[in-house]
Write a structure and sequence with these properties.
This protein is an alpha+beta fold and 365 residues long. It is built from 8 helices and 22 strands. β3 and β4 form a beta hairpin.
Length: 365
């Protein structure tokens, strides 16, 4: 009765045509973007231009078909700039940090609202984080990371610094690397090279090569294992790097499963970024998606478009960065709300704001 002909894959910003096919007794179609009416169609062509705005924003695009008398006959929806895995569920994950022990679901009645209507809390979860490291993959950056990796790994298994670094991952965590090189078409999550899960590997000094991690007691080298990670072709000076786009794609990936999450950008100095989106826009997107972003660099920089950059030019500075990442993950708890909702629509009541805070985009969130 009502079908979208315009199927959006990839980032959606700016003005785009939205076209539909109509059957049955549908006489008019109203187009809603995030519950706001943006067009009414009364006949062929069933098509309208919709302005999705200049920034990356999670959107819900809805078409409502009505008969000549105004009775609703059909309603269809698309979710844009948002992980597809989440919209298939009937629950919405909201990551929060709490002052003190998180309350149970019953205690949070009335804490979360949309347009004044309270949302039901289904459950509260924690643990099992998703971490994605975006590396700019320049030859200079790889050289610095390789030296840092070598200096840290050669400290010996009894070195206190290494012992702390090796506990950077908990059992159940997922740790992957995303390189900002790849095709420019397809969904955001198909445009970049994403590694296998490093949390499944043990790079211990007593092993040869890699060994599957079979026990919860295993202590992988975590972030350290990903630092050298060369990829043939990615290190060419002339390889176009879309760093900001890659960070936005990483946010979608880590948000898709509804677990504690973080994106780490390891950047070089003055890398030419040919992204379609600017760092400022991507930071706002991560904030709306409730994904913490931590930016690391072995290069000291007084001013950076990504904001605060943590220096990791030494073992001690890397340790501080890893511990900050760990705190950002351990502080997160997932509150699951019934229904499908855009994350930026959900408001915290005064009672919730006294004890909870949304997970943000910069620093520890």
């Amino acid at each position: 009765m009502l079908t979208f002909l315009s199927i959006f894959v990839g980032w959606v910003v700016g003005v785009h045509p939205v076209e539909l096919t109509v059957g049955g007794d549908v006489a008019t179609i109203e187009i809603l973007l995030d519950d706001a009416s943006v067009g009414k169609l009364e006949g062929r062509p069933w098509k309208v231009n919709v302005d999705f705005g200049p920034d990356l924003v999670p959107h819900r695009l809805v078409a409502v078909g009505r008969d000549a008398g105004g009775t609703e006959l059909a309603r269809i929806a698309q979710w844009l700039n948002f992980p597809g895995d989440l919209v298939k569920a009937e629950l919405t994950a909201l990551p929060l940090t709490f002052s003190g022990k998180p309350p149970d679901a019953a205690e949070m009645a009335g804490w979360f609202v949309i347009d004044g209507e309270p949302l039901e809390v289904a459950k509260v979860e924690s643990g099992g984080a998703d971490i994605l490291i975006v590396q700019e993959a320049t030859p200079r950056l790889w050289g610095k990371l390789l030296r840092l990796h070598k200096d840290t790994m050669e400290g010996g298994s009894g070195d206190p610094l290494k012992q702390k670094l090796t506990s950077g991952l908990h059992h159940g965590d997922s740790l992957r690397v995303l390189l900002p090189v790849g095709p420019t078409s397809g969904s955001p999550m198909q445009q970049f090279f994403v590694s296998d899960d490093f949390a499944d590997l043990d790079y211990g000094p007593a092993t040869t090569g890699v060994v599957e991690r079979r026990f919860a007691e295993a202590r992988p080298y975590g972030v350290l294992a990903t630092l050298p990670f060369p990829f043939e072709g990615a290190m060419r000076d002339d390889a176009p790097r879309r760093v900001a786009d890659a960070v936005a794609a990483a946010a979608q990936i880590v948000a898709a499963k509804g677990r504690p999450r973080a994106v780490v950008l390891i950047k070089d100095r003055d890398t030419k970024d040919v992204s379609a989106h600017r760092p400022e826009s991507v930071r706002r997107y991560l904030e709306r998606m409730h994904v913490p972003l931590l930016v690391w660099s072995p290069e000291r920089s007084k001013k950076d478009p990504w904001g605060d950059v943590l220096n990791i030019s030494s073992e001690q500075e890397l340790l501080r960065a890893v511990l900050q990442l760990r705190r950002a993950l351990d502080d997160q708890h997932l509150v699951w709300l019934r229904g499908r909702h855009l994350p930026q629509e959900i408001e915290l009541s005064a009672a919730a704001a006294e004890r909870a805070e949304r997970v943000g985009a910069a620093g520890t969130g």
